[in-house]
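S1.2 Input.
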Amino acid sequence: MRVVTIDGPAGSGKSTVAHRLAETLGWRMLDTGAMYRAVTLAALREGVDLNDDDAVSAIAATVTVTLPAGRVFLDDEDVSLAIRTAEVARATSAVADRPGVRKRLVELQREFARENDVVTEGRDQGTIVFPDALRKFFLTASLEERARRRLAEFSSRGEHFSMESVQNDVKARDERDESRAIAPMKPALDAMIIDTTGMSLDDVLARIIGEVRGALNRRPEGDAS
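S1.3 Output.
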């Protein structure tokens, strides 16, 4: 199967771009952030210490996370909205730092891609999960722009925070994601880096689609990604 990876920090636009790209190509979308958020939601509900690798990894090993048609299910429950709260967003980095959680979810991500042509987004997709992907992208934007996008996302769900608090959260998450010992957030050496500050979604998408179509034309359809 063929894989295109889109990595980057929170608020860079990678999720929206990945969804649109998958629709354009007719491929499946793999929202790895949603997988980590779902495990985080389960851990929060259980009240475990999010820094306890054994406890959180045990939860990751026992729950089922599936992504049917743009939805997110935790076992048999649709948690598509529940995983998007500010509480879950703040806690996700701690859960994603747990080696046992990452090992389990990487296995699930690779299993997903064995059955589908995939556009996948996250923070380590091009570096760790799919190092041989057909094409790799790393989206970024200024801290202020990313905080503004996150604030708009929270406001659309009725959650209201100050710009300062959201910007501080985004900055803290960047620092944690970039400095983690396992799978730190960084561009793959062969990734195209795109700064989306001031760019429209259509402009970002057009640039990526052009690159992907070029790669597809150079590689026979039957080749593995």
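S1.4 Remarks. The domain at 3-216 is CATH 3.40.50.300 (Rossmann fold).
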